[in-house]
# Entry
Amino acid sequence: MATATFRIWRGDPNGGKFHEYVAEAAPGMVVLDAVHAIQASQANDLAVRWNCKAGKCGSCSAEINGMPRLMCMTRLTQLTLDKPITIEPMHTFPVIKDLVTDVSRNFRAKIQIKPFKPRKPDAPDGTWRMAQPDVDRVQEFRKCIECFLCQDVCHVLREHHLHDKFWGPRLYVYSAALEMHPLDVEDRSGELRGAGGIGYCNITKCCTKVCPESIKITDNAIIPLKERVVDHFYDPLSRLFRAFGAK
Amino acid sequence: MPEFETHEHDVLVIGAGGAGLRAAIEASAAGVSVGVVTKSLLGKAHTVMAEGGIAAAMANVDDRDNWKVHFADTMRGGQYLNNPRMAQLHAQEAPARVKELEAWGALFDRTSDGRILQRNFGGHKYPRLAHVGDRTGLEMIRTLQDHGIHRGIDVHMECTIITLLKDGERVAGAFGYDRERGRFKLFHAKAVVLATGGIGRAYQITSNSWEYTGDGHSLAFHAGADLLDMEFVQFHPTGMVWPPSVRGVLVTEAVRGEGGVLLNKDGRRFLFDDIPPLYKNQTADNPEEGWRYTQGDKDARRPPELLTRDHVARCIVREIREGRGSPHGGIFLDISWIKEKLPNSAEHIKRKLPSMYHQFKQLADIDITKEPMEIGPTTHYMMGGVRVDGDTQMSSVPGLFAAGECAAGLHGANRLGGNSLSDLLVFGKRAGENAARFAKEHGATQINSAEAQAAARRAVEPFERASGEGPYQVQSDLQTMMQTHVGIVRREEELQKALEEIAKLRARAGQASVGGNREYNPGWHTALDLENLLTVSEAIARSALDRKESRGAHFRDDFPSKDEAFAKANTLVRKGLDGAMQVTRVPAQEMPAELKQIIEEMK
Ligand SMILES: Cc1cc2nc3c(=O)[nH]c(=O)nc-3n(C[C@H](O)[C@H](O)[C@H](O)COP(=O)(O)OP(=O)(O)OC[C@H]3O[C@@H](n4cnc5c(N)ncnc54)[C@H](O)[C@@H]3O)c2cc1C
Ligand code: SF4
Ligand code: SF4
Ligand code: FES
# Structure
């Protein structure tokens, strides 16, 4: 059976280096299979996160040959096997151990965003009526599996480390899902512009490219949010409308 | 004596899937302090993987539906071994729980008049599953998570509980370690809710993740709680079979709900050949009627592909065994054929089943809009679990509650698809509510620190053993053994053999050693999970041995028919005074007259 060489970064907050492992490359294998095989036979304590192995939970994010990807959805056949395959933890987040990083700041940022607040129910039984096309738009954002690959790739976080000033693409997708929710009556433009720092995004679209759920993060979430923020703060007429509850 | 990092909560919830989060939200709403522990990060629990939908008789699509029909469907599916009180509460309360999710921001697919759309699923008489394409679990867990984070609940992520602590008869807390640093943590509580999910990792071929090592089942057992129905393990008929690396990954039943058909290698829809008497009246007798059913024709009966999972899985096994399987040892599931019926079928399939389309495209190079999938049974769900009171969800240990997949009762001998997500909501809420009440009504507990010390000592032993074999080999051998001897088709000798093997594996597990340090060390975590896997494996094997008949998900080759002697009995497992596992039979819960009448009316 064919084999492949995997260069896996191993270490902790104090530093680390690449280790080379040779493993079988069986038909249909994904990178996570190889990592598991190495873990089972050669490196029992190799740290890696995963749950679903089907691209649904967003746990197994890493950088494979320099590209932010899900290990469970990256097939070996998509990579060239004659050179070693490099697997590293996401660079933007502090390393805990090996491929596992500390992504807790994403959870902390989320709590700052005002929660969902629905309008009064449409029907006496406490339910609402919504048309599928209105729901579609927001369902795109709700596909997000919180893999944080978009956060990993965004230069504002990765290179400029503006973690305290800039929520990042995942949290804009989350905000967009709330702001464009057909039932929501909350207004989040203040935080988006302030603590959320959406102004730092200069629409490079790198986040959109890596999203495993193919969410059009920049075009469908960030740009409309930016427009909302601009309208809200600089356009007195639209502010007047908002005061009457139009949304 | 080392001091442990200690956390105090009125209610401690172990598990952050649908059941755990719903319980935590409810307990917190009752005004008590709540802590949640989870082995993974928030939002990654198994619930995120659920695809098809949440069963609730809202009657948005078919106005003939109501709680009584849902109740009768659930009991029939469970072969009447369900706890009827739970089946009743579940059917009555599920609609309110689903609507509540909408009020918290969930966005389900819509009917043309703007209400929540419902789809067909196996064993449900009417279209009943609220859904979001085929990623309903994601919608549900994210809604609960995003709602829950604003409720002042303390969440301890990536923390694994290894033992429950008691104060006399009563539960007093739990003890575990954090995965990141490997430090021990002690949780002191007045009430504890187990919401740890299932046991799928006891088998080789499974749709379940590494988390499903039966921790809650095992924790409860060792704390002296009763387990019930452990012989009933659901093998889902449709898991992927090729390529090998994705073997077991689930293919949602929604594929069949949307018109997908099962074919053997000769292209025959073999399910028409074998329709169980209990379902004869409700099942289509020709393909055309079956198709009309999936398209919402109210006069049509459901196609045999939508019979209950236990039956469909066994028919598939039969086809494969008799040589009519597909090239990689499965059979075919075809949705692409609907192009004969619908003009833009490819778009339709992609819209209705987006993640299935992706899953096959990316992992198996199959375009499901054009060609059939190869599928076979996969270990999916545990009907058995902690025995609880139907109203309060309290176990036989005071202060210890259980909800969701780790609790038994609702599903009896076989679970209907979609009845799990609704189970999590209905009984998660009830467990949270009652745990909070229990905490308020009962005073503080005392922790016996010697118990925690002993657990801590045991936990670090794998590092101290010089050179045992690694834990992965033991785990993998256990999985293969369970798959071979305690799988879909069971028999006396095999089950006896399994018990012998479990004893040997237990000895090996006791010698397994791990290298490295305690920081984020999956080898160590696997070693500690072995105890739980062995406990549930033994409980399954012993219960399966005791039920000398075939019913629901439990099929005995040596006793292939139902036996009246078992028709009204549940299998109970508990830890004897000598520490050994005891199996007894208890009479099934008696059904009150009004429920009996509903069953009669719905026959
Ligand atoms: C692929 C797939 C598809 C499915 N589709 C459907 C569907 O369409 N409809 C349906 O009704 N059902 C479906 N099911 C079943 C359903 O998803 C599960 O039964 C349900 O989600 C279980 O929820 P839970 O809250 O009980 O546990 P889970 O969601 O599994 O959560 C368990 C939690 O307990 C934690 N935990 C476990 N052990 C410990 C420990 N020792 N210490 C600390 N924490 C611990 C875990 O970390 C996790 O947070 C599906 C299942 C699978 C696998
Ligand atoms: S588009 Fe904006 S958010 Fe996305 S990567 Fe570029 S700067 Fe970051
Ligand atoms: S938006 Fe896409 S890339 Fe970002 S966290 Fe969500 S799924 Fe991942
Ligand atoms: S393991 Fe769930 S996305 Fe990879």
About this structure: Chain B touches chain A through 66 residues (CB under 8 Å). The radius of gyration of chain B is 23 Å.
